[in-house]
Amino acid sequence: AQAALLEAENATISQGVVESNHPGYTGAGFVNYDNLAGSYVEWTIESAEARTVELTLRYANGTTVNRPMNVAGALVDFPGTGAWTTWRTARVTVPLNAGANLVRATALTAGGGPNVDSLTVGEPGQTDWSVA
Ligand code: GCU
């Protein structure tokens, strides 16, 4: 199946702001999480049936300190990427219910989350998103 890309700047944001001062993002910008535990971005993912998906979060972390987050109940690491303009991906496999699923990425440490560009919903292990 085609993977669906959901921009962070279009999601629900709690304790974060949309910015565009670090190039390399897709869409209109990215979310700069406030620097505290508990800040989050929440996406709504619609699924026709219950299934397992792999979420790919595209992010930048210009510090040398990991900024782990709880993503849909799973602990995901977001280690430093070397610069705020260097964007990398972190992946996690999660179950979806049939219907609307709220997927929240919540910062777990005082640094807050990394800068988050987007969330892509794909098949587990999917690497080529150009084919069905
Ligand atoms: C810098 C950077 C921001 C980033 C912030 C942070 O201010 O410019 O984009 O979000 O650090 O540490 O979270």
TrEMBL record:
CBM6 domain ranges (all copies): 4-122
Residue stretches spanning the membrane: none
Protein name stated in the entry: Glycoside hydrolase family 88 protein
Naturally occurring in which organism (per UniProt): Nonomuraea typhae
